[in-house]
Amino acid sequence: MENVFDSLKTERLLDLSHSAAAPLLSRFSYPWEALDWIKAFILELGNTLPQDEYDHPKEDVWISKEAKVAPTAYIHGPAIIGKGTEVRHCAFIRGSALVGENCVVGNSTELKNVILFDNVQVPHYNYVGDSILGYKSHMGAGSITSNVKSDKSLVTVSAMGEKIPVNRKKMGAVLGDHVEVGCNSVLNPGTVIGRNSQVYPLSSVRGFVPEGSIYKKAGEVVEKR
């Protein structure tokens, strides 16, 4: 019988072939263990990017020449914006953001200390902090990651009555590949959602949602058919 913690491991949640962060994430059993190293990894990777493919408009910021960045967007380094990605009006990238290829970072969306795999969409009024979003995951309008507990204690990841300590005060969410989060949902600190799962709009999610599931509300998680 599979240990529940196996379902939380990096290789079960994420296809690393769809992220430039693969060398970083492959070092860790659980993806959230990479959160402390995103900044250093971006700085290291950025300095190796080909100048004929990436602009370097300011210190520690690298933007693909094939990306589209609205003039009203703000990008603070370290940050990498991948090929084909669109950063829209008034997006606020606060730093330590590795944004993959063909992503959408939408109007008034805020990013901080994140890895967005290729083809991720956070298109409308999203906050994503201290989080990792897998390939082709999508956060509906107004959905956010809450990355600090109200009592400021250390975050844990809960799954089937068991808890894994994260050993950091800030962690938002890890979304597996092809996860769909409904509009105006809150992903509470330490949320992990397995591949191909769906979260209903207006949900407050906490802990682990298994792959191939539909999260309707707390206590009502059903298998996709």
Description:
By secondary structure, this protein is mainly β. It has one domain (about 5-225): UDP N-Acetylglucosamine Acyltransferase, domain 1. Helices cover about 10% and strands about 35% of the residues. The protein has 3 helices and 25 strands.
What keywords describe this structure?
225 residues; mainly beta; UDP N-Acetylglucosamine Acyltransferase, domain 1; 5-stranded mixed sheet
Radius of gyration: 16 Å
User: Are there runs of 5+ residues with pLDDT below 50, and where?
Assistant: none
State the major sheet.
11 strands, mixed
Query: How much helix is in the residues?
Result: under 10%
CATH architecture: 3 Solenoid
The tally of beta strands, per DSSP, is 25
Average residue pLDDT: 96
What is the fold-level CATH name, i.e. the topology?
UDP N-Acetylglucosamine Acyltransferase, domain 1
CATH superfamily: Hexapeptide repeat proteins
Distance from first to last alpha carbon? 23 Å
Number of helices: 3
SSE topology string: HHHEEEEEEEEEEEEEEEEEEEEEEEEE
Strand content: 35-45%
Overall body shape: globular
- What CATH first level would be assigned? Mainly Beta
Q: Given the helix and strand composition, which structural class is it?
A: mainly beta
Number of domains: 1
